[in-house]
Amino acid sequence: MKRKENGTIAKQGKNKRFAKMFGGAALVATLAFGGGSILNSNTTLTYAQTAPAATPSSSDITVAPTTDQSTQVQHGMKDRQGGRGQNPDRAGELEGAITSISGNTITLKSNDATIITATVDSTTTYTEAGKTITLAGLKVGERVHLKQTGSSNGIYTVSAVEVELNHDQGTVTAVSSDSLTITRADNSTLKVVLNSNTTYTDLGKTINQSDLKSGVKVEVEGNLNSDGNLEASVIEVEHDRLGGTVTAINGNSITIQVDGRDAPGGGRKGQDHNKPNAANNGTVTTSTATTKTITVDSSTTYSAAGQSVQLSAIAVGSRVDAEGTLSSDSNSLTALQVNIQMPEYRGQVTAVDGSTITLQDRNGTRTIEINSSTKYLNGTTAATLSDVKVGTNLEAEGQVDSSGKMTASLIQLGQPQQGPGGGHGHGR
């Protein structure tokens, strides 16, 4: 066994659990069957255990092994649960299910049954379903991500806690006053439990529970209860989707080229949210591009970066994502809504200085300028610039200049839920 006497790392054979994460910081998370390390700093991570003589400090995150591995994923449920307490697609984060909350201490169990104990403080931010919540809004049994940032002395600070909701989709086949039954594409069913906190949306607008009827397609986000039913936080009505680059506009007909990535459902599935997308460049680079038609009428609505616009805002070269009803051959769509896609940046706020927001994403530092026309949302609720604080996760949409600086039309706080143009659809 190898031991670092003055640090927080101990190694014991095959019990090494984690490797280097989050940029170039040298975080090594190993497991030994001893006591926890002591670090006298608020909201910190050690991911290790040292000699049995030490007792964990209330300001640490420590990791301990256990043989009980009870985490399961129900059939059909989309699984975002990473192994070993770590999601490889979300560098700098640990994840697990909350097993207890005591004061400002949260205990988690990861997929490989590793126990993670975290202490949070007044600077930690919390989000659920795209909305900012508080520590009191966390519940035992919920899965969460702990986002960490590095420090020069090797101690890692927890900057954000994000509730990771289970989500599923299907067609409503039964409705009661407090539940829905949805049938998935594979004909399996799921009971969805409704409560006073459940929100309902259709094309970005709030609707009522009574609007959900048999035959309606929905996506549901929430937490599984002990009965295996999904307790819904958000229910979004889904429509067929078609998206691509505009090649012609003729009256109420918009002709688009749909590339292989998006065809025929469209949207931004697979898009790197931290790189400006193909909006307005008029380029389709894949050999699998095909031509489709979007038909609009007087009831069709149009949006760009969360703002209402007119049909005249769409030009040849614009990249659009439309929702509505596909024809039987999937070559055309009668649109209820057409969204003009804008470049996006998504990351964590590191500074707010007047009209400038500095954002850190996986590609580096981004500069975002805001003005009197910038719109702010927290989920579907209106927000303001004062809600944008250091440590907040956000997504910004707007125009990007040649230097990479964005002038934001929309600032979405929290980890935005998928909405129109958000990467799922039924036209496929």
Automatic annotation (TrEMBL):
Residues 95-164, 169-236, 287-338, 346-411 form the DUF5666 domain. Residues 56-74 have a biased composition (Polar residues). The keyword Transmembrane applies. The chain crosses the membrane at residues 21-39. Pfam families: DUF5666 (PF18914). Keywords: Membrane, Transmembrane, Transmembrane helix. It comes from the Bacteria. Residues 53-92, 260-286 are annotated as: Disordered. This is DUF5666 domain-containing protein. It comes from Candidatus Chlorohelix allophototropha.
